[in-house]
UniProtKB/TrEMBL annotation:
Pfam families: YCII (PF03795). InterPro entries: Dimeric_a/b-barrel, YCII. This is Uncharacterized protein YciI. It comes from the Bacteria. It comes from Plantibacter flavus. Residues 1-80 form the YCII-related domain. Belongs to the YciI family.
Length: 99
């Protein structure tokens, strides 16, 4: 499983101009099953994505993010091996994505 931390490198005007393309990219990765959750950080300095799957697939997806392609954000990928899950999380879906 992975946490992807996005740090904005541009002002919010530039970020907002690319937001629709970024949202389309997010939707594509949700449909593929790679992304499990995402959202912006508070304060609005970037975002966070929770992902499961193969690292190579995630790295390819990150490279295709319009924010990355336009050098609007830096992506840091952190891999971890979950050992506990809260009841609100769909554990079976996460486990299936990890396999």
């Amino acid at each position: 499983m992975f946490v992807v931390i996005l740090d904005y490198l541009a002002d919010l005007t530039e970020i907002d101009a690319a937001l629709a393309d970024h949202a389309t990219w997010l939707d594509e990765n949700y449909r593929s099953g790679l992304f499990l959750a995402s959202g912006r950080r508070e304060p609005r300095t970037g975002g966070v994505i929770l992902a499961a799957g193969l690292r190579e697939d995630l790295e390819n997806a990150v490279a295709a993010d319009p924010f990355a392609q336009r050098r609007l954000a830096r992506h840091t990928v952190i891999e971890f091996h979950p050992s506990k899950f809260g009841g609100a999380l769909n554990v079976e879906q996460v486990k299936a994505a990890l396999n």
